[in-house]
Specification:
The complex is a heterodimer of chains A (230) and B (449).
Chain A lengths: L9 E10 L7 E11 L4 E5 L6 H8 L7 E6 L2 E2 L5 H11 E4 L11 H11 L4 H14 L15 H12 L6 E5 L7 H18 L2 E6 L2 H4 L4 E6 L2 E3 L1
Parallel strand pairs in A: 3-8, 3-9, 6-7, 7-8
Antiparallel strand pairs in A: 1-2, 1-4, 4-5, 9-10
Helix pairs in contact in A: 3-4, 3-5, 4-5, 5-6
Chain B lengths: L2 H14 L1 H37 L6 E4 L24 H8 L4 E15 L8 H7 L3 E8 L9 E6 L9 E5 H6 L14 E11 L5 E18 L6 E4 H12 L7 H11 L6 E6 L5 H11 L3 E2 L2 H43 L1 H9 L4 H44 L11 H28 L10
Parallel strand pairs in B: 3-8, 5-7
Antiparallel strand pairs in B: 1-9, 1-10, 2-3, 2-6, 2-9, 4-7, 5-8, 6-7
Helix pairs in contact in B: 1-11, 2-9, 2-11, 2-12, 9-10, 9-11, 9-12, 11-12
The chains are: A alpha/beta (230), B alpha+beta (449).
């Protein structure tokens, strides 16, 4: 077992977020959003493009500073964090899976997984061992030395999932994780995410515009007009 | 993120954009090469003129004449001798003991008749013309200590210290034959005859002159700054000539007595060449020599002027090199800014997985520093090579002009300026891009929202 984390409860209250663009009118993407997630719960957030799904995930994962509202991840008040504390929160509590995979092209699959551990200053010897185990867990033990350019889209996303799990996160946030994948790879990646989440109890939030993808998860909410609807 | 991990990231970043990195390094290399070659050139010029000065070389020399001083002479580089005053061993020792004096080299000279040898390769008509005798001066020095004198060998090797049948000739000798210093080799190996004059009173009255003739092989051509005369030989040669002339029969005749004084002088030494420990000692030593009672000359005002001029040139050349390096640093900044623009998403991913602003800043600064140091190292090497090439051309020219060549070295300070300076400048240039990268929002990981 390579993922030792357990899920974390998430509590969002009255979350409002506006995009400010110079010379343009503010665009409100989230308005008074409330959300309660139990530890280990899996949630699919659906909605059309531009509905604010990525923004919600960015706020949940500490990629964006909160403007108004309250966000509690476990016992951490995320709104109170900034700078290094927010970076530490992202590195230790959250695992991100992006639509575009977010692999560094100059690093091999194994080095990409190790990178997350390097950022967390894990000793070099432990990193290699753990990265290999994670790649084997996503079925890519034999592709560890390959650069992202030599991997298919599905393989790249599986490497990204391995990297997301590198620091035993308690919350996994996947933004359109199958958006760039064909059907076969989509199923592989979704099954992998489900099995890892089931197996290790991480809280999981998947943002997708695809209802088929959303149907993989037991709880689904739709983001419309800045708020989540059942 | 540790420094080692940041280093790996920086190296990978450079490898990923290798062509751009090569161009950036090339710009730094050229700038560092320019700076290095200019600094080396300036340093070589300083060595040629001023290190010799500061280390007590010939340029710190003071010529002491066998004359009483004119007390206004210290305002001038030229000796303004008053009445003759012999230089003896007592005076030589007093001067040697003066503070700031490194060495005192005695000079002997004697008037001689010279019958030159035709230069090699000349036809018989010209050979006959070139053998026309003239009245010249034979200067004798301790050839063991010739390094302390302002003597530069233009061709050949100096006579052996005790040799009586070898001489060096000066550019004045070449001029007598209508030759230029570039033709020095034409007189090497030829035989010159010189004769010390001696006066004899004839039985029936009147005076006759007989010469003590010596044949000597010309083994070298030298440029003797500040020295007069056509022949330079060993002390035994000149002593023998002086002794022969001094033994003239001058009894009761004022004109013959004057002739002998003019040819050999009335002093034990024809002059002294005093070398001071450094340039700053020249003035006080000259003042002390004046106080002892001898006139002296030294090119101190000239050197001071040249030193000031050289400092200005040094500043200008260094500034040119630094401007070039600054332009290269701007190139680094530009390349790094482009890299930050291209890698916004990558930077976002780094932040998404927990990297702090300073981790990102560190990676980009290391990249910039690495480009600078590599460019600086290559540039310093290239600059040294260029300086050596230029040095060869300059040395050829200097030799043609009868001057000593310059030594091209690569001092530690220049290596530090080239490598460390380039690295530091690159770090400064990389500061803005690195700061911009560090401040990019983590949200970039999800695209340009």
């Amino acid at each position: 077992m390579v993922v030792e984390g357990d899920g974390v409860a998430v509590s969002v209250h009255a979350l409002t977020y506006d995009y400010h663009r110079r010379g343009e009118e503010d665009v409100r993407v989230l308005e008074g959003l409330d959300l309660e997630l139990a530890a280990g719960e899996r949630l699919a957030v659906t909605g059309r493009s531009g509905a604010g799904k990525s923004t919600l995930l960015a706020l949940l994962g500490g990629l964006e500073q909160l403007q108004t509202g309250r966000l509690q991840v476990g016992d951490v008040d995320v709104a109170a964090l900034d700078g290094d504390a927010l970076a530490a929160f992202r590195g230790s509590t959250v695992g991100f899976v992006f639509q575009h995979f977010g692999l560094l092209g100059t690093l091999t699959a194994q080095e990409n997984v190790e990178l997350a551990m390097a950022v967390a200053s894990l000793p070099r010897a432990r990193r290699a061992e753990r990265a290999v185990a994670l790649l084997e867990a996503v079925g890519l033990g034999d592709r560890a030395r390959h650069l992202p350019s030599a991997l298919s889209g599905g393989e790249s996303q599986r490497v990204a999932i391995a990297r997301a799990l590198a620091n035993s996160p308690r919350l996994i946030l996947a933004d359109e994780p199958t958006g760039n994948l064909d059907d076969e790879s989509t199923h592989v990646v979704l099954d992998l995410l489900a099995s890892l989440a089931d197996g290790h109890g991480c809280t999981l939030v998947v943002a997708t515009h695809d209802e088929t993808v959303a149907s993989h998860w037991d709880r689904r909410l739709s983001l419309e007009h800045g708020a989540l609807q059942p | 993120m540790t420094w080692a991990d940041a280093w790996v990231m920086a190296v990978r970043g450079i490898r990923r954009r290798f062509s751009r990195a090569v161009l950036t390094v090339a710009a730094v290399t050229l700038a560092a090469a320019l700076l290095t070659s200019l600094l080396i050139a300036v340093g070589a010029a300083r060595d040629r003129v001023f290190d010799a000065v500061s280390k007590g070389g010939p340029l710190t020399g003071i010529q002491v004449l066998p004359n009483a001083p004119d007390f206004g002479q210290l305002d001038s580089d030229s000796a303004r001798p008053a009445d003759p005053r012999p230089i003896d061993d007592v005076a030589r020792r007093r001067i040697k003991r003066l503070p700031g004096v490194r060495s005192v080299v005695p000079l002997l000279s004697s008037g001689v008749f010279v019958v030159p040898a035709p230069p090699r390769g000349t036809d018989s008509r010209r050979a006959a013309r070139d053998r026309k005798p003239f009245s010249g001066t034979l200067t004798g020095v301790d050839l063991h200590r010739v390094g302390e004198l302002p003597v530069t060998v233009l061709a050949g090797v100096l006579p052996a210290p005790g040799a009586v049948h070898e001489v060096a000739v000066t550019d004045a000798y070449l001029r007598r034959l209508g030759l230029h210093t570039t033709d020095s080799r034409q007189v090497l190996g030829t035989t010159v005859e010189f004769g010390a004059p001696r006066l004899f009173t004839k039985d029936q009255g009147g005076v006759t002159v007989r010469g003590r003739w010596t044949k000597a092989t010309i083994v070298s051509v030298v440029a003797a700054q500040g020295a007069t005369g056509e022949l330079v030989g060993s002390l035994p040669q000149v002593r023998a000539a002086r002794a022969w002339t001094a033994a003239s029969d001058t009894t009761g005749r004022e004109d013959t007595d004057r002739f002998v004084r003019e040819v050999v002088g009335s002093s034990r030494y024809s002059g002294l060449f005093v070398v001071t420990a450094n340039f700053d000692a020249v003035s006080p030593v000259r003042a002390a020599i004046t106080k002892i009672g001898y006139s002296s000359s030294a090119p101190e005002s000239l050197i001071a002027t040249v030193r000031r001029y050289s400092t200005v040139v040094e500043i200008v050349l260094t500034a040119i090199g630094l401007i070039a390096l600054t332009i290269a640093a701007l190139g680094i900044a530009n390349a790094m800014l482009a890299a930050v623009r291209e890698r916004r998403r990558e930077i976002g991913v780094l932040k998404a997985i927990g990297a702090r602003d300073r981790d990102v800043r560190r990676v980009f600064l290391l990249e910039a520093g690495l480009l600078g140091v590599v460019g600086g190292a290559l540039g310093t090497t290239l600059g040294y090579g260029l300086a050596r090439l230029v040095g060869l051309a300059v040395n050829n020219y200097l030799r043609e002009q009868g001057l000593a060549g310059v030594a091209i070295g690569l001092p530690l300070g220049i290596i530090a300026a080239g490598v460390v300076g380039s690295g530091l400048l690159a770090l400064v240039a990389g500061t803005v891009p690195a700061q911009r990268a560090a401040q990019l929002p983590a949200r970039r990981a999800m695209g340009d929202a």
